[in-house]
Design goal:
Elements (H helix, E strand, L loop, with lengths): L4 E3 L2 E3 L3 H6 L10 E3 L3 E9 L2 E8 L6 E4 L4 E5 L3 H12 L4 E5 L6 H12 L6 E4 L2 E4 L1 H10 L1 H5 L9 E6 L3 H12 L4 E4 L18 H23 L3 E3 L1 E7 L2 E6 L4 E11 L3 E3 L7 H4 L1 E2 L13 E4 L3 H12 L4 E5 L9 H12 L4 E4 L1 E10 L5 E8 L5 E6 L1 E4 L3 E3 L6 H4 L23 E3 L11 H16 L13 E3 L5 E5 L2 H8 L4 E8 L2 H4 L8 E8 L5 E8 L3 H13 L4 H6 L10 H4 L16
Parallel strand pairs: 7-8, 11-12, 11-16, 12-13, 16-27, 18-25, 19-20, 19-25, 20-21
Antiparallel strand pairs: 1-2, 3-4, 4-5, 5-6, 7-9, 9-10, 14-15, 15-16, 17-26, 22-23, 23-24, 28-29, 29-32, 30-31, 31-32
GO biological process, one term: cell redox homeostasis
EC number: 1.8.1.9
Keywords: Disulfide bond, FAD, Flavoprotein, NADP, Oxidoreductase, Redox-active center, Selenocysteine
Length: 604
């Protein structure tokens, strides 16, 4: 960083920042200012190239140009200026900042800069005699690598262009996509076992379980082969940041290796959360362990009301096992509650028991075995009622914790939501540290779905290395809860739509329906349910799509594409249905909630 300029035959200690302050006094086409001692100036060479120089007063034609080798930020206390400062700090780049809102000549400086660069706003960034621009352009220059070159980082070499921490679906998708653009990529993947194990044991439960494990094994092998084909280096090691752009990888034998990269993607995913009650880690399992059990689980208590909890309970009940779900408050938090309650009601009439408004307070071992016997004591969420019962297996599915606590994020300044361990990101999945990105279940406030992580990973790699501008859509995401009666949805839950648009601006159309295959055995009439939520202020655009019925996932996938294209109620009405199908109800739906009309169905 140059702090000294030659002026005449003497050394004049003026920093580039002082030279920029002098811009407020510039005059004339050459941009120079006369005083008894010096002439200051900013010479516009071409494009966005500038040279800062200083004249010795009497020798008007005698100039010593100096390259502006430090970063100079003309800023204010506004948020965008703070973002740019954080960027330079995270890069370890020295810079000088002139706060124009605290400077007497601030307005004059801005006016002069507008004449020279066409930009009057702050922040206004200069790096090594080059005008970079404002906040957006500076962040873009960082993303495409041009800022690093201006900062003189050409001499810095990294082991990899990109290191992905986490070998889940999102991390693998991002790594392979980046490698397809010719980038040198590494994936670090390591699973910390749950207290019950999550180890790859020899299996002897039954044919079904063995088939599931074989399928999972084939998937894992396929992932390794695809990484090899894409020339992505795979390391079965635990990744931890130790300093900016540097990570430590520790394998299962404890051997440590160190790697550097220009950019990082954190895709570490989540692990099941425990209850922190006596006996939970010693005697309970999670959904991660269910298909690794070397025995049939027998009578099972599922603790939790997430989609994982309900899917596991429905699966066990479908095998003819005694399955009970203990629910603290509501089913499927975050999903449409009308649909969630209908899905739960169907499960309750088809063999799954529910204990509502209770939470476990202890789990005791009564008898060893495969399975053994466990006593669960639970307390009411309201009041002092205590209940007890015995089970062979207790499966905890009360949510998952982000795997972000022990990977060194604090050492490099990545901000984490302390409440849930998740990482806040921009709409481009960028963390508070510009060279670190995050995708998947660890994102704060985003959907925790495998296809979302895959899409986000691919789009991130394309933005980083292909110049794409396409961002992941986290709203219009089709998904399905695979309960015994499937629940598919896309867009907003009714409660969320009301919160965003206002109830008076929405029209909800709904209907019960009877699948053809259920009519002959006269099975469960007026159980399946469908509804759409339309924004009346936007041509009745469909902002929420919900269906409870057989093959709801297959139905939702197709409608998800239509919603991405701006589906409206009018377009649905104009669509000819396929008879007899479940999906056709969306083309004939004409009863709104506000009308109070009858939605029961008398036939297929």
């Amino acid at each position: 960083m140059i702090h000294t300029l030659w002026a005449g035959s003497k050394l004049a200690p003026y920093s580039p920042l002082q030279l920029l302050v002098s811009l407020s006094r510039l005059s004339g086409s050459a941009g120079s200012y006369s005083s008894a001692t010096f002439r200051w100036g900013l010479c516009h060479l071409s494009g966005n190239q500038f040279n800062m120089f200083i004249f010795r007063g009497p020798k008007k034609g005698f100039a010593w140009e100096t390259l502006l080798r430090t970063s100079v930020l003309l800023t204010s206390n506004l948020l965008l200026s703070l973002q740019v400062k954080e960027l330079f700090s995270s890069l370890g780049a020295e810079y000088q900042s002139l706060e124009l809102d605290e400077c007497d000549d601030g307005a004059a400086i801005q006016e002069t800069l507008h004449e020279l660069t066409g930009q009057r706003t702050v922040p206004n960034v200069f790096v090594n005699k080059t005008h970079v621009g404002g906040c957006d352009k500076t962040l873009k220059a960082h993303k495409d690598g041009s800022l690093a070159k201006l900062l003189g980082d050409n001499s810095v070499t990294y082991d990899y262009d990109l290191i992905v921490i986490g070998g889940g679906s999102g991390g693998l998708a991002c790594s392979k996509e980046a490698a397809s653009f010719g980038k040198k990529v590494m994936v670090l993947d390591y699973v910390v076992p749950t207290p019950k194990g999550t180890s790859w044991v020899k299996h002897n439960w039954d044919t079904m379980r063995e088939a599931i494990q074989n399928y999972i094994g084939s998937l894992n092998w396929g992932y390794r082969v695809s990484l090899r084909d894409k020339q992505v280096r795979y390391e079965n090691a635990y990744g931890e940041f130790v300093e900016p752009h540097k990570i430590k990888a520790t394998n299962k034998r404890g051997k440590e290796s160190f790697f550097t990269a220009e950019k990082f993607v954190v895709a570490t995913g989540e692990r099941p959360r425990y209850l922190n009650i006596p006996g939970d880690k010693e005697y309970c399992i999670t959904s991660d362990d269910l298909f690794s059990l070397p025995y049939c689980p027998g009578k099972t208590l599922v603790v939790g009301a997430s989609y994982v909890a309900l899917e596991c309970a429905g699966f066990l009940a479908g095998l003819g096992l005694d399955a009970t779900v203990m629910v603290r408050s509501i089913l499927l938090r975050g999903f449409d509650q009308e649909m969630a309650n209908r899905a739960g009601a169907y499960m309750e009439t088809h063999g799954v028991k529910f204990i509502k408004q209770f939470v476990p307070i202890s789990v005791e071992l009564l008898e060893e075995g495969t399975p053994g016997r466990l006593k669960v004591t639970a307390k009411a969420t309201e009041g002092d009622q205590i209940i007890e019962d015995e089970y062979n297996t207790v499966l905890i599915a009360v949510g998952r914790d982000a795997c972000t606590r022990n990977i060194g994020l604090e050492k490099i300044g990545v901000k984490v939501n302390e409440r849930n361990g998740k990482i806040p990101v921009s709409d481009e999945e960028q963390t508070s540290v510009p060279y670190v990105y995050a995708i998947g279940d660890i994102l704060d406030g985003k959907l925790e779905l495998t296809p979302v992580a895959i899409q986000a990973g691919r789009l991130l790699a394309r933005r980083l290395y292909k110049g794409s501008k396409l961002k992941c859509d986290y709203v219009n995401v089709p998904t399905t809860v695979f309960t015994p009666l499937e629940y598919g949805c896309c867009g907003y839950a009714e409660e969320k739509a009301i919160e965003i648009y206002g109830e008076e601006n929405l029209e909800v159309y709904h209907t019960l329906f009877w699948p053809l295959e259920w009519t002959v055995p006269s099975r469960d009439n007026n159980t399946c349910f469908a509804k759409i939520i339309c924004n009346k202020q936007d041509d009745d655009r469909v902002v929420g799509f919900h269906v409870l019925g057989p093959n709801a996932g297959e139905i939702t996938q197709g409608f998800g594409a239509a919603i991405k294209c701006g589906l409206t109620k009018e377009k649905l009405d104009e669509t000819i249905g396929i008879h007899p199908t479940c999906a056709e109800v969306f083309t004939t739906m004409d009863v709104s909630k506000s009308s109070g009309g009858d939605i029961t169905q008398k036939g297929c």
